[in-house]
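Collaboration report, partner site 2.

Our partner group contributed sequences for two proteins of shared interest, and the home lab folded both. The records are reproduced in the order in which they were received, starting with the first partner submission.
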Amino acid sequence: MRRRLVLTAVATGAATIAGCTSERATDDTNEGATDDTNERATDGDDGTDGYEPCELSILSYARLPEAIKDEVDVALKEGQYATEGELLWSEISGPELEALKKDDSYYTPIVDRNGVKETTLQFKEITPQYDETITLPIYNSTDKSLEISVTVKDGGRTVLEETDLTLQELTDPTLDEREPEGESGPLKEENLSHDKEIPIGSEYGEYTVEITVEDQETISKAVELGGASRFDDNPDYILVQEGSKEQSFSVEIITIEYPMYDPAACPWEH
C-alpha cells in the first residue's frame, strides 16, 4: 500500500508543499550557466532535446544528470538558480515529485517565474513524513512461543517501549514461491503466526529496534523508513528465528525484493 507523504518545512513557517510551476522558455541565457551546461541542455537521455520526467516521489541528487546538478548546486549554494531560458529541473519533474534528497537532507523544490523572461529554482529544507505511523508485523519462526520486549529509538530518543509480548510459534514454514527452486527466500507471510504490530514512526529516517527475547539477550537492528523509490520500499516485517551457537535467537528486518523491477530508475538511467 502506498502511503501519502506529508512534507514539513524545517525552517519556521508554514510547510511548502509545491512551488509555482512556470511555462518553459526557450533559450538558456543564465549568467552563471556554463557552455557545457547549455550544450547538454539540448542533449537528453535519448539523444533528443531535453529530458523525460521521472515518476519518483523522491529524487536522489546523486543520480541526477550532471547538467541538472549544476542548476541544483547553484540553487542550494546561492539561494536560487535563475535562467531566461529553459529550466532543466522542470523537465525531469514528474507529477509524483515531492522532494529532492541530498546526503541526509530533503528539500522541496520551488519553481517560479519572477517576470516575463526569468525563471527561478529554489529549495526549502523539509522533514518528509507519512500521514500515519508505519508499523511492522513481527513473526516468530521458531517452534515455540516466545516472550519478548521491544524498544524503538529515533536517534537517542525512545519512541516505543513494550514488554511482556508473546509471539506464538510458527505453524507451517515454507519458502516463498517467487524464489527459484533450490534457492532460499523469505518465508510466506500467510504461513507465519503473528498477532503483533510494532509501531516504528512516521518521519523519514533511520530508527533502531531493540528486541529482547526470553530475557536472555537484546538484539539491535536498524530500520530505514522512506527512500528514493516510486514504490513503498519500507521493510515488510520483523522475523525472530533460531540463532547460531553464539546466540540463541536472531532478529532480521525483512524486505521482499522484486528483482524484475528497478523501482528507483528514471528514464535517463536506462
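Second partner submission, folded after the first:
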Amino acid sequence: MRASDFITETTRAVGKLHPDQTQTMPITHRLSGTADRLYDLHRVMMAVASSDGKDFSHDPDEESWIGRNNIATPYTKLESDMLQHAYRAVKTWNNTAVDGYPAEPKDINKTSPIAKPKTNRYGV
C-alpha cells in the first residue's frame, strides 16, 4: 500500500473540500465582503449576538467609530511620541481620534462597598 492510497489531501482540487472533510463538518458559512475579513466577521458576530434566530429587529450601525482602521492606544506622552516616530519611519497615515490621556470617570465609586473589618479594643 502506498501513502497516496490513504492520504486524501493531495487528491482534492486546490481550494475545495474533500467529501470526507465536508462529511465531518457542521453547517459552515463562508463570508465574503470587503478586504477586511476580520472586521466583517466581527460585525457579523455582533449582529448574531443581538439576534434571537427568529426575526431580525436589531439595526446595527454601518460601522463602528474605528471603521476599517486599526487602532493604537498609547497611555503616556512617551509612547505617543514613539508611535509618531514609527508612523514616519514606515510612511503610514495616522489620525488622532481621541486626544488626551486616560482618567477615571467622574462618577466612579471612590469608596469601597465592602465593610471595613472590625477590630477589638486591642486593634486586632
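Feedback sent to the partner group on the second submission included the following. The helical segments are 3-6, 19-24, 37-49, 77-90. The mean pLDDT is 77.
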